[in-house]
Amino acid sequence: MKKVVIVFSLVISVFVYTAVVLASSEHSPAVIEGKVIKAIKIEQKAQADVDSWAEEKNRILTEIQHLKYRSQWLEFQTKKYRGYIAEQQDILRDLTRKKEEIDKIKMNLEPFLERIYQRLQGFVAGDLQFLHEERTGRLEFLRSSLDDYRVKLSEKLRRVLEALQVEANYGRSIGKTEGVLSLGGEKREVNFIRVGRLSLFFISEDHKKAGYLVKETGKWKLLDRKYAKELSKAIEMAERKRAIELVDLPVGKWKNASSAGREAKKQ
């Protein structure tokens, strides 16, 4: 519709222009026609330029609007990522603080493990002598682990804790081992029964003789035969053939240990 109006206006302008030229000029009709055609072309070019400028204007306005939206989106993303960065910086600071704390723990842990080992070694040496080979072997393994630079500190800690756990379990369990004991100058096969870490007993294979280890002297002392039945119950409980129950055995608290009183006194 817009172009029709423009063309109509252009035609009217051409006729007006032609009438003026015819009225005021003595040129021939051919000259006048040429000038009219030239004027029409000038008007057409001007209109084409106007249309082109309008399209360019619309394109620029559209691009400006797009850039505006883009700018708003980038501003939003920038604000969001600033929050992410701040959060990551907080996490990094926290990790740095924890690393410093871990480094301090590592510096103190190795000397601490050494002290624990020394105390454990002294405890085993002063404890009721049972499972001598097993316990001394564990201490030797622990010693070599602590002295081995190739073993990680975390693994050293695990091994120390494991050794402590095993020793702690001895205090709340009943253990039974077999061995040979010299009784009255005669070697006899016996069963050794450990009650926690309170007492170490023996009972002969025929269940006729029973006794306990005197920790102060490291010597064995015979018990009344009535305790043989109780020791038999303890053996069955140690072998998990009998439910846990109370047994009547002479137990006590010992003051010292003697290497002569090792559990097996095996020969």
Q: Could you walk me through the main structural features you see in this protein, from its secondary elements to its overall organization?
A:
With 267 residues, the protein is an alpha+beta fold. The chain folds into three domains: 1-105; 108-169; 174-261, no CATH class. The protein has helices at 2-24, 29-126, 132-147, 153-170, 226-238, and strands at residues 174-183, 186-195, 199-204, 210-214, 219-222. The protein has a five-stranded antiparallel β-sheet with strand order 1-2-3-4-5, covered by helices on one side. α1 runs antiparallel to α2, α2 (29-126) packs across α3 and α3 packs antiparallel against α4 (153-170). The protein is rod-shaped and about 165 Å long. The model is unreliable at 1-8 and 253-267 (pLDDT under 50).
